[in-house]
């Protein structure tokens, strides 16, 4: 009886998942098809792949510094992600494992910092970074985003399921607190780290407003800026634009695809 | 910015700029001495095929007499230029700005009045402002002072598909020097006989409204900067005409820019009325070559001062407070954009970059016939149009007024009472002015 | 089910706790709170650009007579109340479905559903605008199926424009929230499900009585984040509907941006409106935490 139920449930799952997947992917299919067509055909709304892909790619490299933009985007995103994951997971762990009223209060206050639209603090932040002579630098780019309430909260909530008796036992065994964090906590939080890595990388990769304010050098061009340049002209080449957009989208997707086996069930056995 | 000696931020520069920026009217740019042998300028502008290309050619022209001159052109979208200017000026730190930047004509009033120290006063720089169309120069004049060197042409043209018109029994001459009521009459006929609307426009944008207003020399603000949205006979006439265009089906409203371009390239409309820069997009549809013609826009009925000429868009070059070598920048602009017919002749053929420099309009290149437009000498035509555009009063709160009128327009087309909507629009603008 | 007993903290351990969270907290204080205080001070000033003067709480008072701002406030709440619950429930269901050992192609499904949030904003906006344009695919099918006679201009009518934003938001962010739930589900021992099945529980019962309660911490996270994100919504208003038609889809953040950069800069007023958003999100987040943040 369990098997028949399972089969039925699975069938429903497959159907729903397939429909949702197709709906999710369709706009990307449109993007990919547009990247293979000439601009005028894209504006005419064609859904069939064309033959202009190579031309569009070549043209993209002619009108924009694609290599620079990709390199910069990777550089900023990777550095930011590594630092962010480290600092925020430490904090989440601290807030949860050592929780007391004081720490809970601080957590709530920290949450306030994400509730103000960035536009409101843009200029004071700019003035601070400028006064610290960090305009046009990587440090200036990434500093405001390293510590975010979202990540801290994510790690804190995930740490709720980390069994405390293990910590007691480890302490008795003589392990120091930071050793517990690195050797015991991190390995059990693979899925959380994978999620955090993906969304942090994605946010860093797609960030636009702050970079345009603080970087005024063409050598600091990033992919979103490149895309923005492509739609600025009196005439937009939609085919070339879509190639750029595909390039801009791919890294995050690849990272997710690589990491997503961490969302597979059965990792919790690592605790033992 | 690291290449340009002019704009490398250093501690002392930052404090100098901050101090200078807060001193009202201080001529801070001459306080900084030009570094010896410093011959590079940084420019911010957008569009590689048009503005950037023009700057590159200007560089070459200037290098003929100044061989070690160099331009560092950084491609920057307009929105980012505006954001950077606002951030820099508000925080008193101009160090991130370039020497020269391209500024939308409609934004000059707002920027100069909000941040008086941001642009260099060019009135006595020797630049020949009288060689440009008066309406165009007027955009960048604030309190009688010049702040911009005019560049690209936004003169309004009416483009029509002659093959579609022919089917309905009309030629482009029937659409030249006419009134809007005649245009609507012809449009209805074309619609009935071919099923095609004459025009497409983005819904919720007031481009056409502003074009029609300026064609009669009318504005949304008076000379003192007070909003004139209410009790504005011309505006009411414009809105009524627009509403009629929509309800009769002569004008079809589309959702956004890509769709608008799509109507042109897919041939689902018989024409368009827009700034002359629309030619670039029209010509991407190579299979429509020979089927288009250019003429002037209709004029408003029963409105004093109505003409067949107007403007939509366009920008001018401005020198920022961060420029350390203003003399060089002024000389560069003066000898190229404001002085070299050869320059304009070079950039026209490959980019279609139409300028507002009147002497250029007399050159041979500008008289070259365009195959796409049935052998018509469109460049000369458009330069002539540009000289006839009536001046208007942009006003500091231009964008606020534009948006408010666009909202009113949408509601009026939806059936709301015009007077109520216009009052609401004016109230909205006054509200923002009081902040 | 591991009960997290409160571990006894001696003095040294308590200090260690603070050390763990110090770097992140200090950074937020320096890089967020300091600018926020400056912005708060700004909100009590009026004026253009850098020419500011004190005006007390006037900005806060006048925003309630700002028709456009009030409209944007309404718009944000419409999106919040409709879009967020649908999206979170959908994400939960999808995550639960994908947390099934016997299902094949899970990797493909996960990636496909995640793809939308990785898509660059520019392309996603163009795609949606094109899909719902007068000659777009949606109209094409609606006409083919006989539901419509001519193309309906979705984006120029208020209700349909709002629906499109809601659809776009659901399309874009369901996968994002699903990722959080998937991660959270990994911390639940799979044997619990098997035990429940053997006891005869149905899929729906398992979902309601086991999955959801165990995921509460993460659900709370996504609820707070989605509330925050929706009340601060910007991209869709700017790029998809441009705030129209006639301000019926414009969001508060979009209007704040206009007030700062498109129009004559009125940073005092913009700061005041920003703080209103903070108050709204804070109240809602507080309620959500009160209701849902339990340590068992």
Plain-language structure description:
The complex is a heterotrimer of chains A (272), B (435) and C (296). Chain A has 272 residues and is mainly alpha-helical. In chain A, 74% of the residues lie in helices and 0% in strands. Chain A has helices spanning 2-35, 39-43, 53-63, 66-97, 101-112, 118-131, 138-146, 149-159, 164-172, 177-188, 190-206, 209-214, 223-230, 238-259. In chain A, helix 4 (66-97) crosses helix 8 (149-159) and helix 13 packs antiparallel against helix 14 (238-259). The model of chain A is unreliable at 265-272 (pLDDT under 50). Chain B is globular. Mean pLDDT of chain B is 87; it is low at 1-37. In chain B, strand 4 and strand 5 (145-146) form a beta hairpin. Chain B has two domains: 5-153 and 313-363, D-Maltodextrin-Binding Protein, domain 2 (3-Layer(aba) Sandwich); 156-310 and 390-433, Periplasmic binding protein-like II (D-Maltodextrin-Binding Protein, domain 2, 3-Layer(aba) Sandwich). Chain B is built from 17 helices and twelve strands. With 435 residues, chain B is an alpha/beta fold. Chain B starts with 10 loop residues before the first helix and ends with a helix. In chain B, helix 7 (162-168) packs across helix 8. In chain B, strands 2-1-3-12-6 form a five-stranded mixed sheet. With 296 residues, chain C is mostly helical. Chain C folds into two domains: 1-42, no CATH class; 61-292, Orthogonal Bundle (MetI-like fold). Chain C has helices spanning 11-42, 58-62, 67-98, 106-118, 121-131, 137-144, 158-185, 190-198, 203-214, 216-231, 235-239, 252-262, 267-292; strands spanning 45-48, 51-54. At the A-C interface, helix 1, helix 4, helix 5, helix 6 and helix 7 of A face helix 1, helix 3, helix 4, helix 5 and helix 7 of C.
